[in-house]
Structure of L-threonine 3-dehydrogenase, mitochondrial:
Amino acid sequence: SSSQHFRASPPPWCTDADPPKVLITGGLGQLGVGLAKLLRRRFGKNNVILSDIRKPPSHVDHNGPFIFSDILDYKNLREIVVNNNISWLVHYSAVLSAVGENNVALAREVNITGLHNILDIATEHGLRLFVPSTIGAFGPSSPRDPAPELCVQRPRTIYGVSKVHAELMGEYYHHRYGLDFRCLRYPGIISADSQPGGGTTDYAVQIFHAAVKTGRFECNLRGDTRLPMMYIDDCLRATLEFLEAPAASLLGRTYNINATSFTPRDLVREIQKGLPDLEVTYNVDPIRQAIADGWPMALEDTAARRDWGWKHEYGLSELVRTMLTHIATGNQ
Ligand code: AKB
């Protein structure tokens, strides 16, 4: 596969006549179904395969091919890639920050051993590989406001350590074997119709459902904890645009993307403009608070804006208005 590095002609999925065949791992997490919808609109329903180790719940409208894939089973992965002629792999399987601190062995297995399988499969079969990184790849000794693309990265969570490992391994495989590795550092992602699975930024999704359903919310972070956040549509569009960017335009392989930043207090104030009766109490979870206190408050993303035209659309007020409309109209 090192010969890819010197390939003269563009890879086949660059032509309109021949769209990529995409496999999404961890497809039933917060982002997979939404990304599959977007990619299916662009490349055709049957060219995007969603996969997970669980059965899709009945309320999940994934509307296209869905299969079992276990990233810890190399043979299973290889069979899927070969049988479906996969050319792009979006690797969304991961154990998130808060769950990872409660089960380090599982996080290490999924986030590090699983990633090794993914890197090997992608290299062996000449795939374009997208792996998300995160604000969690920074730590207390990183510059916080904003965190630059290149800086000290000494995270204090197994999730963060595994994501720094993914960034470094992917970039190494790119240089060593020509792997078309692409990585975005996502902020906390806010979505209406899918739930996050055990992160530190989850409060900023849960508060909307609580606000609409009960009018009360207990927040597990301190009211002044400022973190970078992004509405899911911006995140998924960034991912598609970055995946489609010509390799020659990418001066790096790991990019920060930034949209907005807010504290729980800012978010409550904005939601109360639509739902003035919302009552919020604070009951801080020390594990999540310690994680959040070591994360940046914003990401510096001029390289993404310069190299492949990244531009966010949702600031705090658009994000809140859109979330409340989606949830109130039952689109969840
Ligand atoms: C988490 O909170 O663990 C994730 C993330 C910011 O990577 N949402």
About this structure: The radius of gyration is 19 Å. The longest helix spans residues 104-124. Residues 1-10 have pLDDT under 50 and may be disordered.
